Amino acid sequence: MNKAVPGDGDATPMKILVSGATGLVGQHLVRRLLESGHDVTALSRDAGDATLNLPVRCRVHEWTPENGHLDGSALEGIDAVVHLAGENVGGGRWSAARKRSILRSRVDGTRTLTDAITRLPACARPRVFVSASAIGFYGDRGDEILDETSDSGSGFLSDVCRVWEREARSVEAAGVRWVSLRTGVVLAKESGALPRMLPAFRLGAGARLGNGRQWMSWIHVADLVSLLVFAIENQELQGPVNAVSPTPLTNRDFTRTLARVLRRPAVARVPRMLLRWALGEMSSVVLASQRVIPAAATEAGFRFDYSDLPLALTDLCADAAKELRLEMWIDRPPQEVFPFFADPNNLEAITPRILRFRILRASEGPIHEGALLDYRLRLHGVRLRWRTRVEVWDPPRAFVDAQLRGPYKTWRHTHEFEELDGGTIVRDIVRYELPLGAFGAWIAGRFVEHDLAFIFAYRRTRLLELLG
């Protein structure tokens, strides 16, 4: 078997297996790898959910890591494995049962993958196994500067990371290069720490946590994805790698910087006792001081695009709009699929009946650039009127409609149609912003995300029934 060799550059596409592909980092990584021409397979507990949320070109292989078995076909011809799966540490209070679940989700999944790799013939094994880890490995260390040679700390997360990395490292005995990325606070628009902070900060109610003197080690999601790709391709990188910006700073300085970028005050403080009361043992995640530097990555030649926090936050906070991106494949060419969308009456057929969607008025004749569409719907018992205008009309490749009047502050829906294997990738890219700014996002943001997920899941099902 001829295996692609990581480090040979973009000229040699690789076959890459990614677990945790539907998570925040996983979705960014899958898109980057596909854009670079690589062949990507995602491991997922729920193949239906993964198919809905990942690009069409990403294959999906269902697995249940707790059962200790992975079908060998998932690893067939794979050049690199990126293991990101694991239960969200910040998803709720740490009961004894939840701590066991957090540990098992990392250890069982890692062991299942490494066992499957070592069972393969030597010539068929992937060249590299890149596994997630966390700077929780170091524990609470005050002002101490920490690099990859620093000892582990104490506490629950330190214990989890030690066991996690030990399981991942077992592939070295099978001749597979091993890299564990000890990730800090990941800053991204879609989810994670930053979206949880932004509503309060945008309302001028941002606050430092505790005394604010604890060090925060952070990384922009784009840099984290670049570092994952770097770890796959750079054969000299091995062992633990701190996936953090080279400029850690205290929580007090982080709070001031975010407030300054948003041009809002942030003078409040959340007392440690209140955090411990609200979060229990999990408060250690936000109160631990970890001044971590990415020595291994920088020594290997990795360059950060967002090493400076003001630059990173400006990039992530400049646009308050949310983005929804979904793909599906229909077994018909674009010349047959596009006309379905050119008929506004078909909108009713692919909209959930519970919304009572009705077209009130449409521009006469076929849809064209500048065409107007008026309709009404009922959402959570509230009757809404909506008017959209077609801003781009490029059959059979794409069209764009934007809200002129309706429930959103802004709404722009891009429809793309790309030919693939005799069929069509139907790609929806929706950018929207709620009214009332930060207050509207705080009050209704999660409800709107849930509603849109429901509407587009229904839309997908109906399109497959009608066209598939």
Task: Outline the fold blueprint.
Blueprint: E1 15-19, H1 24-35, E2 39-44, H2 47-53, E3 59-62, E4 80-83, H3 96-119, E5 128-134, E6 145-146, H4 156-169, E7 177-183, E8 185-187, H5 193-202, E9 207-209, E10 215-216, E11 218-220, H6 221-233, E12 239-243, E13 249-250, H7 251-262, E14 268-270, H8 272-279, H9 284-287, E15 291-292, H10 295-299, H11 309-317, E16 322-330, H12 334-342, H13 346-349, E17 358-362, E18 372-379, E19 382-394, E20 398-405, E21 410-420, E22 423-433, H14 437-467
Parallel strand pairs: 1-2, 1-4, 2-3, 4-5, 5-7, 6-15, 7-12, 8-11, 9-14
Antiparallel strand pairs: 10-13, 16-22, 17-18, 18-19, 19-20, 20-21, 21-22
Helix pairs in contact: 1-6, 3-4, 5-14, 7-11
Report the CATH topology name of the largest domain: Rossmann fold
CATH homologous superfamily heading of the largest domain: NAD(P)-binding Rossmann-like Domain
Give the proportion of residues in helices: 25-40%
Q: Using the CA coordinates, give the radius of gyration.
A: 24 Å
Structural class: alpha/beta
Strand content: 25-35%
Overall number of domains: 2
Give the averaged pLDDT, no decimals: 91
| Name given to the CATH architecture of the largest domain | 3-Layer(aba) Sandwich
Number of strands: 22
Text of the CATH class of the largest domain: Alpha Beta
Total of helices: 14
Strand order of the largest sheet: 3-2-1-4-5-7-12
Main beta-sheet strand count, sense and barrel state: 7 strands, parallel
